[in-house]
Specification:
Blueprint lengths: L9 H11 L17 E7 L17 H21 L1 H7 L49 E2 L4 E2 L11 H19 L2 H4 L5 H4 L7 H12 L18 E3 L5 E10 L5 E15 L8 E13 L13 E10 L15 H5 L8 E2 L8 H8 L5 E3 L3
Parallel strand pairs: 1-8, 1-10, 3-5, 9-10
Antiparallel strand pairs: 2-5, 4-6, 5-6, 6-7, 7-8
């Protein structure tokens, strides 16, 4: 039978799902994750990121600075008079508004070859425009920023079955990283229900992660949950990434998800309006196993590996929740001893990102 043909009919697939709970003779009883979880936390700079600090010293360059600002204002007024529509388009991006800057990006079908531009980084976010000054202003909302490939018959699955597995994979990403209740700190029950309950090492990790989180058993490796001291701004989380797949071990369909999420937050206290952003990039590899060869609960997948890279979510703190910092906290801390990283740069693979971070401790994000 050719590699591109289905190795099992849809009717047999349904039968396999019904029989899978009972197991199949000779099948592994507890498929294990083949790579341990890896996490590197990158903290924002002690002050605002470099583009936000690109202004002269008020004592030494005050006269020159005011002269330049006055000249720019004069030029700006002249441009508004000559072509108001074009000028309005220049300032329409970043969390709402028109113009090319806020035009949605096309789906990410492959890894980009360079990081996104930094021209808009000097624009600070606000409660009304929480993604202003960030490349995420042009990313998709929720799962809208996660690209799905075309389904084709692969391994033991038909084209229809692969399409269904792709949808379920995206469901897991939504339940683990976008669900409003989970973001507010609730247990990610829907996401956990999609993970093979016969995979004992993963089940042990999950049990420990929610009972007594630590470096090796941190729920934030797979799930996004925030401390109650902060609240999300609005109901939009920006995302950008893609899902790919290939034939894996024993004819399984192995899917790799590589997605960056951007969460805008403010302090939970009444009247707080300083917006900080937590940026999380996760790579999760999952195996949709053939129930004729692996004991697996129907409709679930086995975890192969999972990696996470977080900016402004708390560095070397293992509470089970993201604990983003604001300007006052950053100003009171020393810079991290790890490398500088652009959290929006998706041109580097997660493996390369992990190697670059190494064991250097808390790094520094070049922007937020």
């Amino acid at each position: 039978m050719g590699k591109g043909e289905a190795s099992i009919s849809d009717e047999e697939w349904e039968r396999f799902l019904r029989e899978a709970e009972a197991g199949t003779q000779g099948a592994p009883k507890e498929p294990s994750a083949r790579a341990r979880m890896v996490t590197r936390r990158l903290r924002e700079e002690t002050g605002p990121p470099e583009p936000w600090r690109a202004h002269p010293s008020p004592r030494r360059r005050r006269g020159k600075a005011w002269y330049v600002v006055g000249l720019l204002v004069a030029i700006g007024l002249l441009l508004v008079a000559l072509d108001p529509g074009r000028v309005a388009g220049w300032f329409g991006g970043g969390g709402g508004g028109g113009g090319a800057e806020s035009a949605p990006l096309t789906a990410e079908s492959e890894r980009p070859d360079q990081p996104p531009p930094t021209e808009a980084a000097a624009q600070r976010p606000t409660v009304e425009k929480p993604f202003r000054g960030s490349p995420a202003a042009r990313w998709g909302d929720g799962t809208g920023g996660i690209s799905l490939p075309v389904a084709r018959a692969t391994g033991w699955m038909s084209k229809k079955q692969v399409a269904h597995a792709l949808d379920r994979t995206r469901d897991f990403l939504a339940a683990s990283s976008l669900d409003p209740n989970v973001l507010r700190g609730e247990r990610p029950a829907k996401a956990i229900a999609l993970i093979n309950s016969h995979q004992q090492d993963v089940q042990d990790y999950l049990a420990t992660a929610f009972r007594a989180p630590n470096r090796e058993n941190d729920p934030l490796l797979l799930f996004s949950r925030f401390d109650t001291k902060v609240r999300l701004v609005g109901d939009v989380v920006k995302s950008r990434g893609r899902i790919t797949y290939r034939e894996g071990e024993r004819g399984a369909v192995e899917m790799t998800t590589d997605v960056t999420y951007v969460y805008p937050v403010v302090r939970a206290t009444a009247g707080s309006d300083e917006v900080a952003r937590t940026i999380v990039r996760r790579e999760v590899v999952m195996s949709w196993d053939d129930p004729a060869k692996v004991v697996i609960k129907p409709g679930t997948f086995s975890l192969v590996s999972y990696k996470s890279d977080t900016t402004n979510g708390g560095c070397d703190t293992f509470t089970g929740y993201f604990t983003p910092e604001f300007s006052a906290e950053r100003a009171a801390k020393s810079p991290g001893d790890g490398p500088e990283v652009d959290p929006y740069d998706r041109s580097t693979s997660m493996d390369a990102r992990m190697r670059e971070a190494g064991d250097a401790g808390c790094g520094t994000a070049t922007r937020s």
